[in-house]
From TrEMBL:
Residues 1-25 have a biased composition (Polar residues). Belongs to the catalase family. This is Catalase. GO terms for molecular function: catalase activity. It comes from Paenibacillus sediminis. It catalyses: 2 H2O2 = O2 + 2 H2O. Its EC number is 1.11.1.6. Residues 9-393 form the Catalase core domain. Keywords: Heme, Hydrogen peroxide, Iron, Metal-binding, Oxidoreductase, Peroxidase. CDD domains: catalase_clade_3 (cd08156). Residues 1-27, 371-397 are annotated as: Disordered. It is an enzyme of class 1 (oxidoreductase).
Length: 485
């Protein structure tokens, strides 16, 4: 590995002591706002592109509704889930991750799967992907990761050297990379893929009892993926293939639908489960925590104006409603800040007043002024709190459930570092034909990498996941498995 004597610093020149782990209260957190290096990285990253989204720039959206099909009030007091048959309007945005606004729909990339529920208690945003895991598990690494997916600053070309260098130095990415390089890496359409909340969240019921949950949207259209050659052909002939397919399906009353399920874990299991349940690079076994049906999502109305609805739609995993709360997931903790901050920069401080983002519930707060304030700005009402003039007041019954924290405030990683079991299990679940395509996709992606050092390092990760897996990739690259793996 190459070395240098340059010390990483903040933008004001102070040396950075840890660029891999955000500062948390104990190993599980939560993340501390005093980690100014983390906040600076995320805030600066959100302002690197104007005006399209830094990530998830290319997307399509639709309106629809969510209908509850199972009574889960024993687990959450969220009112939009309070009774079977209850319907809540929603808006969804699908997207690719790395490409620009004009990029092709059919590239190999995760797909964003962001749902905005317009509930009577305010908007609830569930902002996930079409995969149950992610490449990294700490938000402090997110700007660096996305930089590798973007263009080289000199050539302005995509850079496989950066992609594989980062992944090979971040073994936690192995599970997501395996999924990305599999058949699921190129969905046939937005309608023919699943969606996931990916993170672990907390549900709280009316009695103040809590559980951990993970969300799974299962497509009723069935899983379908694209052959790599057909995907490449479509990228040239119809780069808006997925956008067109979604619009036409809804226009022709072929309304896409998904069943929503959750996995539910008792709070105490988080301390003993064989993988850290807050690590977004890992899944929970469905044998341990089976899927429980929640409801059904149906998309039945196209936007009338792409910019006003799809482009100006803003989603944040920090938009909760009573009964749904955050977990100590370090990637989620960073996103709670970063997403809304991105919207304040890209769309404006008053982005939630736009029609596509405006809650259907009444809004009462003391936020005033700012660019593009299009409502009456609170009129002449009281503009501070506390006050004795009848202004809106807090409701203590809606405070988040208290939780214990322990340990030293320090930049530390997760306690568990097994990055190989789950991708190895996934490989062994595939048919021989699926394995062949997976290996071919990986080999094809890694061949342009210039340094054998990077290739060997990544081969070592594949080999640790499954020896056959690593050997086949090594052979495809004309290399050998590194000694001592």
């Amino acid at each position: 590995m190459s070395t240098n004597n340059k010390t990483l610093t903040t933008s004001w020149g102070a040396p950075v002591g840890d660029n891999q782990n955000s500062m948390t209260a104990g190993s599980r957190g939560p993340t501390l706002i005093q980690d100014v290096h983390l906040l600076e990285k995320l805030a600066h990253f959100n302002r690197e592109r104007v005006p399209e989204r830094v990530v998830h720039a290319k997307g399509a959206g639709a309106h629809g509704y969510f209908e509850v099909t199972n009574d889960l009030t024993g687990f959450t007091k969220a009112k939009f889930l309070s009774e079977v048959g209850k319907r809540t309007p929603l808006f969804i945005r699908f997207s690719t991750v790395a490409g620009e606004l004009g990029s092709a729909d059919t590239v190999r990339d995760p797909r964003g799967f962001a749902v905005k529920f317009y509930t009577e208690e305010g908007n609830y945003d569930l902002v996930g992907n079409n995969t149950p895991v992610f490449f990294i598990r700490d938000a402090i690494k997110f700007p660096d990761f996305i930089h590798t997916q973007k263009r080289h600053p000199q050539t302005h070309l995509k850079n496989p050297n950066a992609v594989w260098d980062f992944w090979s130095l971040s073994p936690e990415s192995l599970h997501q990379v395996t999924i990305l390089m599999s058949d699921r890496g190129i969905p046939a359409t937005f309608r023919h893929m699943n969606g996931y909340g990916s993170h672990t969240f907390k549900w709280v019921n009316a009695e103040g009892q809590a559980v951990w949950v993970k969300y799974h949207f299962k497509t009723e259209q069935g899983i379908k993926n694209l052959d790599v050659n057909l995907a490449a052909k479509l990228a040239g002939e119809n780069p808006d293939y997925h956008t067109e397919d979604l619009f036409n399906a809804i226009e022709n009353s072929d309304f896409p639908a998904w069943k929503l399920y959750v996995q539910i874990m008792p709070l105490e299991d988080a301390n003993t489960y064989r993988f850290d349940p807050f690590d977004v690079t890992k899944v929970w076994s469905q044998k341990d925590y089976p899927l429980i049906e929640v409801g059904r999502m149906v998309l039945n109305r196209n936007p009338q104006n792409y910019f006003a609805e799809v482009e100006q739609a803003t989603f944040s995993p920090g938009s909760f409603v009573p009964g749904i709360e955050a977990s100590p997931d370090k990637m989620l903790q960073g996103r709670l800040f970063a997403y809304s901050d991105a919207h304040r920069y890209r769309v404006g401080a008053n982005h939630n007043t736009l029609p596509i983002n405006r809650p259907q519930a009444e809004v009462h707060h003391y936020q005033r002024d700012g660019q593009m304030r299009a409502d009456n700005n609170g009129g002449g009402s009281v503009y501070y709190e506390p006050n004795s003039l009848g202004g809106p007041t807090e409701s203590p019954q809606n405070k988040p459930l208290p939780f214990e924290v322990s340990g030293e405030a320090n930049s530390v990683g997760y306690d568990h570092d097994d990055h190989y079991t789950q991708p190895g299990d996934l490989y062994r679940l595939l048919s021989e034909e699926e394995r062949e395509r997976l290996v071919e996709n990986i080999v094809s992606s890694m061949k342009p990498v210039e340094k054998d050092e990077i290739k060997h390092r990544q081969i070592g990760h594949w080999y640790k996941a499954d020896p056959e897996f690593g050997q086949r990739i090594a052979e495809g690259l004309g290399l050998s498995v590194p000694q001592g793996v």
